[in-house]
Write a structure and sequence with these properties.
3 domains; alpha+beta; 32% strand; Lipocalin; 8-stranded antiparallel beta barrel
Length: 342
Amino acid sequence: MIERFLSLLQIELTLTNGPNLIIAFWWYAMLQVLIDAISAIVLSFLPRHFLFNINKKVMKGYLFSIVFALLFFSCSAQTRVFVGSTPPHDIVRSFLHISLTDSIDFIRWNLGVDQQKFKLQCHYGLAAPGIPGFSNEQRVTFEGGLTKSGNYYYLKHQGKPLSILGVNANVLHLLDQDNSMLAGNGGYSCALNSTSPVQTDAINVPSSYTVIENPLVYEGRTPCGDLPKILGINTSEACNKMKWYFLSYSDSLTNKPSYFLMGGFGYRKETMARGKWQIVKDKEGRIIYQLDNDSWAHSLNLLNGNNNILFFIDTTGHLLVGNEDFSYTLNRRKSAYSGRHP
């Protein structure tokens, strides 16, 4: 019972926005029940003549403080685990002590973090054809110190640093030396995903005006997950990933969003689907790219993390959480493909 209580309390404490008033009262009531039970057990073991000298309210107050402190620190010390597959950026290779000359397609992460330290296991190598694995898997495992400032995590191991943004309790994103989000590629993003996601409205991405270029080019791969349901499209039960490639055009006179092209065989424009897009803001002032296509029942909403990263969000504005193979992000390309098969 106590393990279940700790588990539930940990979920509330890891929410970036904190519990709302109703939940806070609920936890208070549960603590009161727990304190009453402990008090009854303690009193049952005391000799009868001691009971007359005990102020039960004071005793309950002490017990309440002790139990709450134990629960809080126990939950705070829990290790949270994040997974994902990223490209082998130079800054990542340096942190993992991987040679810059090694041939690597991607790195698969398992990162455990708590208040002051981290534990990391990474597998890396060349991608195996047709499956989400490696043809020549290699591994690196180590632990190190961690400091946290606001929404930023700073990892250090053998003098090598790595900065990570806590986008919320469920999604982390690797950063460069300037604390800007690293861009991935068409196959892999630089996000890490919680293995135990919690319900949260928080998104720690500052609002910023997006620079419109003509066209904006984004690509990436995501899990199938909830996206078919969100868009109202049909996919096979065997679907484990979705491939995305967008060219978003703006009106040459007004600079306002006009239309987008999507997908296509060999990236040839004449084979790409077409739709409309617009830029909207959520209640926090963050930039949302809203895309509509005739084959979708609902809009596709993409949160502008910075001008290089887009995050998939659901119909209620929550970030989607990926898995160890794919994240729900798109990465910006400097230019469109030349119309050939990649």
